[in-house]
């Protein structure tokens, strides 16, 4: 298979990432070959190495970019206000941000086991940074809970929305976020 006519590095690199994201989310990292990614993009398998050193680097890049975008988006959206206002804002932010990135979220949680120890440490550090945001908010709320355990439970609950939410369903995005604000408040025994 020859390179697509009119293709270039600027055009092909995002196509490689998008194909890998889609295929990893559908079939799992271990089951997807570089040959499959190349076929999806429309280039020869050897051409992929112009865009990524190997499949591990591609997985790591997808996860790293996902976490970088998450951290930057939160930094831009992080509100001032009371601890409860910040908690509510975090819940809404997390749900809305992740709803638009279901494949990236799935890969970021389910494919951690496939990272090399070095890559895992980088992603785990970024995840810990995001977890600390919520843990600090919960502490500021005066939640009578184990901060780390509650943080992990809340994040798992919020991220789990991606497993069942579908556009056009019984609840729209805003209703889901509002419901989860109430659930999180009850979980941490926080009242308005």
Short characterization:
Helices cover 69% and strands 0% of the residues. By secondary structure, it is mostly helical. It folds into two domains: 1-52, Homeodomain-like (Arc Repressor Mutant, subunit A, Orthogonal Bundle), CATH 1.10.10; 54-187, Tetracycline Repressor, domain 2 (Orthogonal Bundle).
Most strands sheet: none
Sequence of secondary-structure elements: HHHHHHHHH
What is the CATH class name of the largest domain?
A: Mainly Alpha
Could you list the spans in which at least 5 consecutive residues all have pLDDT below 50? 1-5
Number of structural units classed as domains:
2
Give the count of helical stretches.
9
Question: What's the shape?
Answer: elongated
Q: What structural class is derived from the secondary structure elements?
A: mainly alpha
CATH superfamily of the largest domain: Tetracycline Repressor, domain 2
- Seen as an oligomer or otherwise, the chain set is single chain
How much β-strand is present in the residues?
under 5%
């Amino acid at each position: 298979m020859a390179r697509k006519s009119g293709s270039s590095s600027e055009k092909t690199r995002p196509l490689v990432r998008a194909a890998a994201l889609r295929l990893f989310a559908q079939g799992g990292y271990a089951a997807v070959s570089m040959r499959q990614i190349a076929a999806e993009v429309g280039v020869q398998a050897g051409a992929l190495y112009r865009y990524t050193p190997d499949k591990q680097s591609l997985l790591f890049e997808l996860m790293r970019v996902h976490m970088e975008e998450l951290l930057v988006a939160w930094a831009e959206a992080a509100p001032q206000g009371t601890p409860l206002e910040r908690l509510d804002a975090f819940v809404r932010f997390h749900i809305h941000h992740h709803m638009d990135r279901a494949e990236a979220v799935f890969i970021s949680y389910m494919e951690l086991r496939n990272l090399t120890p070095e890559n895992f440490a980088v992603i785990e550090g970024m995840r810990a940074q995001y977890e600390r945001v919520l843990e600090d908010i919960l502490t500021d709320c005066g939640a009578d809970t184990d901060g780390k355990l509650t943080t992990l439970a809340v994040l798992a609950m919020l991220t789990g929305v991606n497993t069942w939410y579908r556009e056009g369903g019984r609840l729209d995005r805003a209703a889901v976020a509002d419901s989860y604000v109430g659930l999180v408040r009850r979980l941490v025994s926080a009242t308005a």
